[in-house]
Amino acid sequence: MFALALWDREQQILTLARDRFGEKPLYYGWVAGGFAFASELKAMHKAPGWQDELDSVVIEGYLRHGCVGGERSIYRDVFKLVPGALLTLSRQQLVSGMRPEAQRWWSAVDVASEAMHSRDSNVVSSSRLEAVLKGAVGRMMEADVPLGAFLSGGVDSSLIVALMQAQASRPVRTFSVGFDDARYDESRHAAAVAAHLGTEHTTLRATAEMALDLVPRLPYLYDEPFADSSQLPTCLVASLTREHVTVALSGDGGDELFGGYNRHVWAPRVWSRMAPLPLPVRQGIAGLVRTIPASGYDQIMAIAARVMPSRFQVRTFGEKLYKLADVMGCDSPRALYVDLASMNRDPGLLMDPASRTGFELAERYPLLDSFSQTEWMLLMDTLTYMVDDVLVKVDRASMASSLEVRSPFLDPEVFQAAWSLPLHQRVDQGEGKRVLREILYQHVPRALIERPKMGFAVPLDDWLRVPLREWAEDLLSIRSLSALPMLNAGAIRQLWQQHLKGQGHYAQQLWVVLQLLAWARHWKPGVNACS
């Protein structure tokens, strides 16, 4: 992982380059006629002549995904070098202000395609994948400072820790965070895995107050608006871990490479059953789904869980069913994926009509003919969600505590090996990450791992109604909303009232707006509604 700049004194050429997956950020742009670059946007603010004008075109994409994705940044004329790319500028180009095109030095799409095409001649077994993973873990364990690992007790982190412990001469140090709300607490599962593997495990018992204390700092830590609420426990576990070690290994990338999200398993099945039905029929089914409150479905799942295998159990079942009802009108597998991957399916509803730009589906999610629907989703998650959300979340949270986080799943050899596998070894029979489970169960009993996927979540619904209500009310006031005229203040206020009355699950949508407003209040950007 790296972001680097090289000045060739003889040729008078500047080269910027970024790592394969974008683990480290790199911003660049023209400020008052001069070229500037930095690893953090807050550093760009120090460039002479800096003008922090908001790029309102970016807002609609942000409201959809909860992060600023792609090449553009939240500011006009400031860009992000895309992963696996380099930018070369001569002295003449630097002086003239001409923006050259970035060149790819590594492409995830190309590597995945080549690996798929060589499957017949280069078969990767689970034992071969384990050897590749073990090699990546071993290389990332090389450090002259104290080393540890994040451990949630899920498949990815448990496998990384198991492979670490298999190569370590002493117990590996592992860390997890547990909340006082049992619905979101995975710490006991992590502790059980740690006990079986024999690691030296530490659990931070986090209270809501500890996480809430972080909320005012988020706009500074993340530089751009960022609304993945798991940023809060990530910041907490990074802070805890840094008290004991300087470097930590993580399981990031496992979901994107090996099919760990619900959409990887269910989207193809949903589409195959949904596509033959006429649109009016689908809309009628969606209406029927909504006749039962989301909380009612949660109660049904709780009863069914007594006899249902754990891998079929779904947390927040009602919320997910309502989301399924929302996507019944999709007209293609690509549109279905985009809706499932969105925090807000229709971000334009939260914007002033004059500021809506429309969502460029083809630009962010290109069609790739040689990939199946599931393989395409895996690759799109790698190129977009992982780069713009997951890695941003972890990098900013860890750097805030001066902790270096390394991700063995993002080793290029692991990526190539993953794409050399036939799809059924990753996703099959209603289960994702099948090959990782096969490897992991050689180190950890299946019973310690098999349970519904929780993610790294917080009880945001409850927090917005009680401990964060005053903070949210202030940000969602008419005066505060008027600072960003591209927003639809009336629609946002209505959503807030519905949330307070318990008339739907709107916490994530509101968190996206709240983080944008909090960011704007902290950084006070100039706003040009026509930018």
Automatic annotation (TrEMBL):
SUPFAM superfamilies: Adenine nucleotide alpha hydrolases-like (SSF52402), N-terminal nucleophile aminohydrolases (Ntn hydrolases) (SSF56235)
UniProt pathway: Amino-acid biosynthesis; L-asparagine biosynthesis; L-asparagine from L-aspartate (L-Gln route): step 1/1
Cross-referenced InterPro entries: Asn_synth_AEB (IPR006426), Asn_synthase (IPR001962), ASN_synthetase/amidase (IPR051786), GATase_2_dom (IPR017932), Ntn_hydrolases_N (IPR029055), Rossmann-like_a/b/a_fold (IPR014729)
Keyword tags: ATP-binding, Nucleotide-binding
The keyword Protease is assigned to this record: no
Residue ranges of the TM segments: none
Keyword RNA-binding: no
Catalytic reactions of this protein: L-aspartate + L-glutamine + ATP + H2O = L-asparagine + L-glutamate + AMP + diphosphate + H(+)
First-tier enzyme category under EC: ligase
Residue ranges of domain Glutamine amidotransferase type-2 in the record: 1-92
PROSITE patterns per record: GATASE_TYPE_2
Family annotation (Pfam families): Asn_synthase (PF00733), GATase_7 (PF13537)
Alphabetized PANTHER family for the sequence: ASPARAGINE SYNTHETASE, ASPARAGINE SYNTHETASE (GLUTAMINE-HYDROLYZING)
NCBIfam families: asn_synth_AEB (TIGR01536)
Protein name, as recorded: asparagine synthase (glutamine-hydrolyzing)
Organism annotation: Alcanivorax jadensis T9
Lineage: Bacteria, Pseudomonadati, Pseudomonadota, Gammaproteobacteria, Oceanospirillales
